[in-house]
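Problem 3 from the worked examples.
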Amino acid sequence: MKLSALTSKPKLEKIVIDDEKIVKSYGEPIEFYVYDRQGMDTFMKLASLDGEQDIATISTVIKDLILDENGKKIITDDNLLPVDVMIKCIEVTVRRLGNSITQTLGKSLQS
């Protein structure tokens, strides 16, 4: 397989938070978007985070990934999320991107 066959333009993927506590608090599931592919710099920032990092450091990295349906940043200096929603967004975003890394590495290691 040619390496070029694995390239593609990043696409927005919808993420739905339907956690019971979030739905109870806000009355419905919450949705946002992330690109299905990220640059190596973003993955390196995420990979460098460990359990000793505070939530502020993690949210600084994640806020650039949380987008609306048009690919625009939702979190800005003037627009912030409630803490419970931000924590859940961080959790599901990191999990989603982590699964992408694992799946990609797993496929390449099996070859």
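Problem 4, a separate protein:
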Amino acid sequence: MRAGTAIAVGIAGLVVAAAVIAGIHGGVDHTGQPAPAAARTTAADAAAPPVATVPTALPVGDLRRLPKPRAGDLEGALTIYSAGLCLPIVVDLGRLVSTSSAQRGACNEWVSPGGRQVALTQPPPEDGVLRTETPMQVSLPRDTGLPYLPGKAAAVTVTDDGVVATCDGRHVLVATHGRVRAVRAFTPAAAGFDERCVTGAIGAQVVRLADDRRRLVDAITGATVRRLAAAVRQPVAAITASSDGDVLITESANGALEGTVYGRDGSVLVARRTVGRAGTVRKAALTRAGTVAALQTEHGWDITSLANGHSLAFTPGGVQALDVAFSPDGTMVAAATLHGVVFATLPDLVPRSLIQLPAQGVGWFPEALFPHLRTAPVRSDAPMIIPVAPRPS
């Protein structure tokens, strides 16, 4: 996929400009090009191969056999970015009603730790720079001057107050209130991904690993943000904070990704263990209390329970997981697929329900961030339309 225009928007801004009220009918007409897929299928499900139409009799274990969630089963607001057109639809899960938004589409998104800001990339063929918008802001987003460079470096970092960081492989770039600065410059390693590209967000601060490998420091000022009880031994692949302040530091080691969860006081909450397959982390998430981690690399998504070792895996040849989001209360995970959004319980990672809207992006936020939604009931009685398979990245 070509580099897309990236936008960092306040969550509420996604629905301020809502103009069209539409129920989710279980499928949409896809005339655009889907974003590249992260190829992985649920290990707990024997999903049927992608086909042009939904078969009359679905195989046992097919994700499309999952029931639609009932109103009141889930809490919060779900932002679904439809496959193909990447159009945002907001679902009030408590009432199971939906709103389509006039906001421009987004094929990829990165959420700040507290869920107050999102960095978005627009569908191709548009190229451009990252833009920012604060929650409830109704004016046009502001350019930051930061390009989105897929596949070139680490994932985009966005803080709760809209500071955005990227890396071009030689510089760590941070945009604050429209001002861009290079906060780190280096000669890249001879081969492979360079850990000096990696940043993360803790609240309103962009952080990186200090040279002594025992501290997280402010990427702009160098001030210590958190001291770590155990040193980081291997090259860093990602730094990810949960909404309640725990931090997962992922390392590349032994042909895999290994993660350690540190508490707000720097203590080790979860000792180092395997959390994914080796690769460059494009996106990462950690649920409240640090119990489940989700990592996306070029190989797809790895969703791992740090409490019991269970995993929800997506592999080539079946249903593709394109995005993952945790519920605000840390009890559920949502996975965007071309069959719809799958909901699984935590920490056992068992699929329970499905909203049949083909999706390639998903975010899960407190309902309070979406006040005064104009909504229509979510429907699942219309026939499913299977979109074309995503093109390779």
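Solution to problem 4. The first helix runs from residue 13 to 16. The longest strand covers residues 268-277.
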